[in-house]
Amino acid sequence: MIDRLEIVRLTAESPHLAWIAAWQHAEWGHLTFGETSASRLSALREECGEAAGVPSAFVAMSGGQPVGTASLVAQDMDARPALSPWLASVFVLPEWRGRGIASRLVRRVEAEVAASGITRFYLFTPDQQALYRRLGWEDHEVLDYRGEAVTIMTRLVDAPV
């Protein structure tokens, strides 16, 4: 059930890392030329970071099993190197969608951003603009990225008092 869902920081030692990397590779591997399952796993380990802030990765857990993920990374789009940091890799298993998990993952990353003193960050999406707009994100730019039409979105976050 959704009430037993827990959002936790993903570590490089997590036993679920290979599984999560496989999800991400299947979902977005086509956007990264030459990416393999092994290179995605290596990149995910780096996204885990060693402390709070950028980079960080989070996983939604239910009953000891991962059901979704999201990351905070310094760079997610080589076409826009001046934009940083990025909400990245928001993914929920298909059978778990429609339960607010993606929103909870996004809010957890937003909290990480705010706690780090960062006030603006970015994401890009080909098809989830409505979700992010509901969460307070605004369109920044629409472009063709590696053969796919995507929207770069931005969010201002208040730093904690």
From TrEMBL:
<dbReference type="InterPro" id="IPR016181">
    <property type="entry name" value="Acyl_CoA_acyltransferase"/>
</dbReference>
<feature type="domain" description="N-acetyltransferase">
    <location>
        <begin position="5"/>
        <end position="158"/>
    </location>
</feature>
<keyword id="KW-0012">Acyltransferase</keyword>
<protein>
    <submittedName>
        <fullName>GNAT family N-acetyltransferase</fullName>
    </submittedName>
</protein>
<dbReference type="InterPro" id="IPR050832">
    <property type="entry name" value="Bact_Acetyltransf"/>
</dbReference>
<dbReference type="Pfam" id="PF13508">
    <property type="entry name" value="Acetyltransf_7"/>
</dbReference>
<dbReference type="InterPro" id="IPR000182">
    <property type="entry name" value="GNAT_dom"/>
</dbReference>
<keyword id="KW-0808">Transferase</keyword>
